[in-house]
Amino acid sequence: MSETASTNEENKLPLNGRRAIPANYSNDDENEVPEMEAFGLIPRGFNPRDYLRVVDIYMFKEPHEINKQEHHTDKYYNPRLIVRRGQAFQIQIDFSRPYKPETDQFWLEFLMGRYPQQNKGTYIPITVGNVLKPGQWGAKITHREKNSIRLSIMSSTTCIIGKFRLYVAVLTPFGILRTRRNSATDTYILFNPWCQLDAVYLDDEKEREEYVLNDVGVIFHGSVEDVKSRSWSYGQFEENVLDACLFLMDKAELELSGRGNPIKICRVASAVINSRDEDGVIAGSWSNSYDYGVAPSAWTGSVDILLDYYSSKKPVKYGQCWVFAGVFNTFLRCLGIPARLITNYSSAHDNNANLRLDFFLDDEGKVDTKLTKDSVWNYHCWNEAWMTRPDLPVGFGGWQVVDGTPQETSDGMYRCGPASVQAIKHGHVCFQFDAPFVYAEVNGDIFYTRMEKNGTQVVENIDTTRIGQLIVTKEVGGDGMADITEEYKFREGSDEERLALETAVMYGVKKENIQDTTYQPQTDVDMDFQAQKVVLGNDFKVTITFRNKSRNSYTATTYFSGNIVFYTGVTKSEFKKHTFSAKLEPSSSRSFDIVIKSSEYMRDLLEQASFHFFVTARINETGKILAVQRAIMLEIPSLRIKTKGELVAGKETSVIVEFTNPLKQTLENVTLRLEGPGVLRTIKKQFGRIPMNSTLTWEVKFIPMRPGLRKLIASLNSDALRHVYGELNVQIQKP
């Protein structure tokens, strides 16, 4: 076979009876574009140099130049032009001679992928006109000087997001002359929250600065009684992160033509962030052993995870909910979709969205761990993305829940959302996607049910307030906490709340009527539970208080159970059991203290250092049961960070991280991480051990890259101690 025949064979498309061209879902693949596209036979004397020829194209792509400044893309560490859709940008074309509009004809071509097609939005020819229409592709000349012209180019507000190749085509009588393939003129087009016609338009400048441009965030964790926070570096502008985020859409096999739609992008991304279906970004592990990987608590930000995945194409080990949410937030902000990270405290994870979590009690009123399958997570993190929802009735746009943590399958894959927060609040859970699941996470009731010997179930107590009692995110423009519970649900017990619940039930959320179950609560005795602030490694006490509001004397047989739990509410071990009888005088209160020694809990402690206490009390005279459960977080010591010398962009300086071991044991296999977006890339260092009471000091020299207020974030990880963080705000001066 001759050489030409074999290359023709290779260029032929693979035969497929279903579609004329293969699926087009790689942003990186390219097609060959001819530099001379002849209309027929070319006469002998034809010389392309006789016609208008493009000598150079200038993209104004430096961070300080007009395009990146006006499009809010000057922070991206990327040498190419990055613009936002629906907003004009400038380029300059230098020709071989002055341009004559009467006789010369040229146009621009933007191409994406291997099989560019105009009707799919992957081939965009733009002719030069006199006016730019808002929200539509077009170009007009704004300036002519000697051999150069300056163009203002408008992109469509529904344009595909990704990296386009740019060609300039000139018409001659015998064919089309095109510029050579030049990757320096590649143009990234992103979503535009500043443009009113864009589906992700957000009208508040302070919110845009927070939800699109802020590259550091705060993650709230702990428990509702003891909210804790830590910083997370999103790093959406760091080198190669934009390419890594575009690669995620290739990996999820999202057709290029669908990439202008934020609903589709969020839906496929919520599946590709986790590794459960298609070898996505992060492998989850809730096992407390993280061999051959990084413990979820050790990560300080998203950049390392995304870049590791982009280069290895293999899932990165390991993540838990806040890691999935942190990486998802980077992905959304990087592409220009406003996004924030949400924490739901006491998050219900029941397997069948029936708004009921069952905790089974045995004959004595103690929780039966074998029968109890449902769990209440101390907290669960997900994301909200801001967009219009043209696929839903009016009023359900705005914040949408998306969740990358693999929990339940949705249409056969581990993914969740986008689900309208407004629809969840009003109980309109019929609107796609996955609204019933999110509704149950924030609205379940806890039923304490006793199994009789004959198998009947008796409901002893119902807790309607615990689930989803606090939903928070980082405040705009600060590191504090914003309580957004009211955006997800009406006030407990209000008429609106009842109506929303009835609506959700009408649309198929299963709710059991309390009338169906025999249940009369004990109303004249209250039981409450308090714990001191607990520092890791110390003894502490908890207090159980009874309030007898009746005129009767009662005795209460009380069971106290202390458990070490994963933050998902799943018990690892019971470390404390205590039973006592409480005499309750009429119209009075009485408190009982229980002391918990560090020796009782230190051996089995898990990384998030959280305890779960169950207290159940049976009033002997009436047979009624009171029940309360609490999650308590230990105070974990933090890392101390300080800087040495002055901080000037481009000048070497150093930072010192210190940590004192508070435990009565040596810490083994200690790893420290330090990073700061725009200041320094993640640095890791391993230390063998830290003996008890001794202090570790680590000095890191670095050169800050850009001026402004930045944040340094550090974490420490070891076999016995995890979730140790430190942070420092630093002001970097201009040189």
Q: Which spans of ≥5 residues are poorly predicted at pLDDT below 50?
A: 1-14
CATH superfamily of the largest domain: Transglutaminase-like
Per DSSP, the total helix count is 12
Number of strands: 41
Tell me, briefly, the overall form: elongated
| Rg computed from alpha carbons, rounded to a whole number of angstroms | 31 Å
Helix content: 10-25%
Number of domains: 4
Distance between the termini: 65 Å
Give the helix/strand class. Answer: mainly beta
Q: Kindly state the mean pLDDT as a whole number?
A: 88
What share of residues are in beta strands? 35-45%
CATH topology of the largest domain: Coagulation Factor XIII, Chain A, domain 2
Largest sheet: 11 strands, mixed
CATH class of the largest domain: Alpha Beta
The CATH architecture of the largest domain can be given as Alpha-Beta Complex
Domain Transglutaminase-like: 313-406
Cofactor: Ca(2+)
Keywords: Acetylation, Acyltransferase, Blood coagulation, Calcium, Cytoplasm, Hemostasis, Metal-binding, Secreted, Transferase, Zymogen
Active site: 321, 380, 403
